[in-house]
Amino acid sequence: MTWGQFDEGENKAVPEGREVNPAYEIQAGDILVSRANTRSYVGAPVLVGNTRPRLLLSDKSLRLVPGESINKRWLVHFLSSPAARDFVSETATGTKDSMRNISQQALLKMPMAVPPLAEQLRIADVLEDYLSRLDVAEASIRRSVRRSDHAWASVLNSVARGDLNGRTVHAGLRLVSEVAVVGGGIQKQQKRRPVRNTFPFLRVANVARGKLDLDEIHQIELFDGELERYQLERGDLLVVEGNGSPDQIGRAATWRGEISHAVHQNHLIRVRPSEELLPRYLELIWNSPLVIDQLREVSRSTSGLYTLSTAKVKSVKIPVPSLADQESLVDDADIWETRINAARVVLQSAAARSRHLRNSVLNKALAGALIPQDPQDEPASTLLERIEIERAKGVKRRSNRTPRPRRAAAAVAAEPYLTPSVITPIPSDAIQQEFEL
Questions:
Q1: Pick from 390, 389, 380, 383: which is nearest to 66 by CA?
Q2: How do residues 377-424 score in pLDDT, each as one tens digit?
Q3: In this predicted model, what pLDDT tens digit does every residue of 35-88 receive, in sequence order?
């Protein structure tokens, strides 16, 4: 479940023999909200369309059940708006961006400016018209990004084959152990908590394919003789040892001496090229699909995981042409990379403009600025009165429920929260919430 997207195929089977409550089966028309996710996805809403039967709500999701005065399509758009995202960002708990949580109580306290039901329908219609056009544009941007990725992969393969720009470079295949020194890194342990003799420590998170991310560098304690043994040298290739994704196994980037006296984690394998290899050439061919396929094959295990070792890396065969040919291939590849990166910058700018435009459209539409007001719509006083009646009925129904084993208590109604707006506001607790945590 991501922004506006519900994939019924992404699920796990309930253990055999475990009793399940059919009340938590996901139905077409449900509004689901991601309760626990990364900072970018926590609170993401989706309106479920047609879905397979016997699919249960997980404990990482919440189901919102709006009252009769709230249109589901409008509500999902509101929950996707910048105002709602800001509320979730400020309210979600968790110390790491990789896992944030939004509770049912917090979600129920989200302020909402709600127009009459007829206006909600008009807003939803105009939003879906505008947003569908943006969806088409963004899909085109994503296709172009994929094409740029494929173009770069083709360049890397051409370097490995020696035929970039129509060249014909002949090179024999050599074992990595014949043309480079391969070594492991330092295991992070309690005794290595940085205290006195601390040094920069590169982790798997710092190594992307073909580039390093050095924004966050950890420190580690070293002991006698370890700096000389593990210190990185300019030109070293850092290879990721293992990854759950076969597409990411063995991804690598060259160390260019960006930080003095740096060492690396044991989950990174250091490949130090000999005088027969240019570091840049080694990086290019290592990240080519031709070598990646070989890395994937040697890293495959019976458990289905993909893990490299120094011995496996040494067994990989790579093409090693003359230094002059390596230099020519690198020069041509760098020209291609400059062109492809320039195209990527344009695509990133287009994607950023699209996101900005999407937020602007949501803001204006939800403020009633994209459609004309209709004096025949239900008055605010009548709307509020009807919502209070619905709320009272909902509280009474919940109070009459018989407790069931292993079910969480019903959500406590939030205090009314009125947001000043040209659109008539209502208490956020006009939405009931069903959940199993």
A1: 390
A2: 887 778 777 777 777 776 555 555 544 443 333 333 333 333 333 333
A3: 888 888 898 999 998 888 888 888 888 998 888 889 999 999 999 999 999 999
CA torsion sign for 237, 322, 149, 257 is positive
Can you give the pTM of this predicted structure?
A: 0.78
Sequence-separated (6 or more) residues with CB below 8 Å from residue 162: 168, 169, 170, 171, 319, 321, 325, 329
Q: Which of 345, 432, 292, 310 is nearest to 141 (CA)?
A: 345
Pick the closest to residue 366 from 166, 130, 147, 36 (CA basis). Answer: 130
Instruction: Please choose, from the candidates 288, 278, 227, the residue with its C-alpha nearest in 3D space to the C-alpha of residue 252.
Output: 288
Q: Read out DSSP for 23-48?
A: GGB--TT-EEEESEE-TTTTT-EEE-
Strand partners, 425: 113
Distance, C-alpha 427 to centroid of its chain: 33
Rounded Cα gap, residues 148 and 285, in angstroms: 18
What is the C-alpha separation between 88 and 79, in angstroms, rounded?
9
- How far apart, in whole angstroms, are the C-alpha atoms of residue 370 and residue 40? 27
Distance separating alpha carbons of residues 53 and 151, to the nearest angstrom: 42
Residue 376: band (very low, low, confident or very high) from pLDDT cuts 50, 70, 90: confident
* Tally: H helices and E strands in the chain: 11, 22
The token pair at 268 is: 């990174």
User: How far is Cα 117 from Cα 75, in angstroms, rounded to an integer?
Assistant: 11
Widest pairwise Cα distance in the chain:
83
Strands 242-243 and 306-307, bridge-based pairing: antiparallel
* SS3 label, residue 124: helix
CB 194 within 8 Å of CB 221: yes
268 strand-pairing partners: 240
Residues 190, 191, 196, 202, Cα dihedral to 10°: -60
Structure tokens at 198: 């601390």
Q: All domains of the chain, ordered by start, with CATH? A: 22-116+378-434 (3.90.220), 172-320 (3.90.220.20)
Dist. CA 125–CA 88, nearest whole Å: 25
Q: How many CB atoms lie within 10 A of CB 342?
A: 10
Gap between the Cα atoms of 379 and 297, Å rounded: 68
